[in-house]
Amino acid sequence: MPVVIPTDLELLKSILTRDFQYFTDRGTYCNEKDDPLSGNLAFVSGKRWRTLRNKMSPTFSTAKLKMMHNIIVNVAREFQNYLEQFAKKKETIEIKNIFLLFTTDVIGNCAFGIECNSFKKPNTEFRRIGKRLYEFTFFEAMRVIFSTMFQDFSRMLKMKIIKTDVAEFFMRFFKEIVEYREKNDIKRDDFLSLLMQIKNTGKLDSDSTGLGKITFEELVAQMYAIFNASYETTASTLTLAVYELAQHQDIQEKAREEVNRILKKYNDEYTYEACMEMKYIDQIIKETLRKYPVIDYLLRLCGQDYSVPNTNHVIDKGTYIAIPVHAIHHDPEIYPDPEKFDPERFTEDNIKNRHPYAWLPFGEGPRNCIAMRLGMVQAKIGLASLLSKYRVNVSPRTVIPPVFNYGSFTLSPKDGMWITLEMAS
User: Cβ atoms within 10 A of the Cβ of 39, count?
Assistant: First the structure.
């Protein structure tokens, strides 16, 4: 299969935004009839995607994000308290698994409206399902690749790419919780309640124009996508941020000083406004995503013959576009000394002086990650709550440089990340 790998940033802008009508689809396999959870916003194509995106976008508005902010903060307090037992003893801990407990509880509360209590019960069914999402046997991986390459044939064979036990869990779980909420008229400030409004009325309370109803299967597919997108990715980003901070104590101290200064201003409360003021924490997260993009390439499918601007070249209909995010983020002409961890790359002035398509961890254009702001807020609160009380250091078990699990679909440290934790004061 021919694949175009564009590296010119203006061409990337054309593909992702300016000429988006040629590249609306990701070319991923979707079979809603036999594999209902594949009918989510990440996988669907064409008009189906546009309709679904229009219905989902209002659920990720600033107002809805503020509504869920306190939920994330409450989980972060539990996370912070959980770490104290290790910090007092200056223990060496595997930090990624702890971040996975944090992201499980955030998504459980924000999306599903349930108390997962992962810090007290780390081996719940949600944790098991979370692990299954990113564990692929050889045959499971080959099935995904085959279905992508031969999509029509795969649909004829009724192939599924969502693992059976994962699909059955989500369908069973949401059937029970939706029926319970509807029977008892329960409303909560979470994504499930928002999607239930769209399912039952075709609109949100604040939307008088209407969005159009969704089916129960569509609701479950979107909840699956939210969990899938937020569970592993945020935990990996926080893990790699801590890994870098353990090696750069000056950056860590500057971040801690910012967090504590802003918290003092807001009476030690992680208000939405306080989090928005934590600019240096934001820079650290962005530099982590620059150096370690969790998804190292973006996939698009050319929907019709496309004449490349200012050239005689034509990208034929049906050609895949693989945008090399990791390579762009490590291009020394864009980011000098790219292996250096330097949050100063993301000051407002430095961002303005750089091409806007030089940083792509969430994609760009109309098909960017719809939950980008939620992911950033979750990561900022998680990192800030850790740094405000604790210091992270490298340990004899810290692998430098990190070794990654190349059998994973996301960038994730192999065998986790070991660091030493201690009280900051």
Answer: 23
